[in-house]
UniProtKB/TrEMBL annotation:
<dbReference type="Pfam" id="PF13366">
    <property type="entry name" value="PDDEXK_3"/>
</dbReference>
<protein>
    <submittedName>
        <fullName>GxxExxY protein</fullName>
    </submittedName>
</protein>
<dbReference type="InterPro" id="IPR026350">
    <property type="entry name" value="GxxExxY"/>
</dbReference>
<dbReference type="InterPro" id="IPR011604">
    <property type="entry name" value="PDDEXK-like_dom_sf"/>
</dbReference>
Length: 127
């Protein structure tokens, strides 16, 4: 499956979850529901994937976790916050660099319209 098809499915699933649940819940609720919805669509989804770092050749478990990894290609960082801060985008970009993945989606479910809560991060730049 091509990466644009995967991201299209993720965005559509996020909109469905948001329209059903609305804003204001914990991130963990949206994570579970989005993972379920994506799996129902036949996508491979890993939840809370550990992300160690390598420091001068030494593997260090730093406690980083990717919220969702879809089809081993798209990193998803979920939020349920009043406003996305620059640090949230930097966090996702760091995850992309550490995993050598090309595309990430930052999804903030604490919005009135889900389309306003979607940020795509690719190749070091946000759309």
């Amino acid at each position: 499956m091509e990466i644009n098809d995967i991201t299209r499915q993720i965005v559509d699933a996020a909109v469905k979850v948001h329209s059903h649940l609305g804003p204001g819940l914990l991130e963990s609720v949206y994570l579970q529901c989005l993972a379920y919805e994506l799996r129902e669509r036949g996508l491979t989804v890993e939840k809370e994937v550990p992300l160690p770092i390598t420091y001068f050749g030494v593997r260090i478990e730093a406690g980083f976790r990717i919220d969702l990894l879809v089809e081993d290609q798209v990193v998803i960082e979920l939020k349920s916050v009043e406003e996305i801060a620059p640090v949230h985008k930097k966090q996702l970009l760091t995850y992309l660099r550490l995993t050598d993945k090309k595309i990430g989606l930052l999804l903030n479910f604490n919005v009135n319209l889900m389309k306003d809560g979607i940020t795509r991060i690719a190749n070091g730049a946000a759309d």
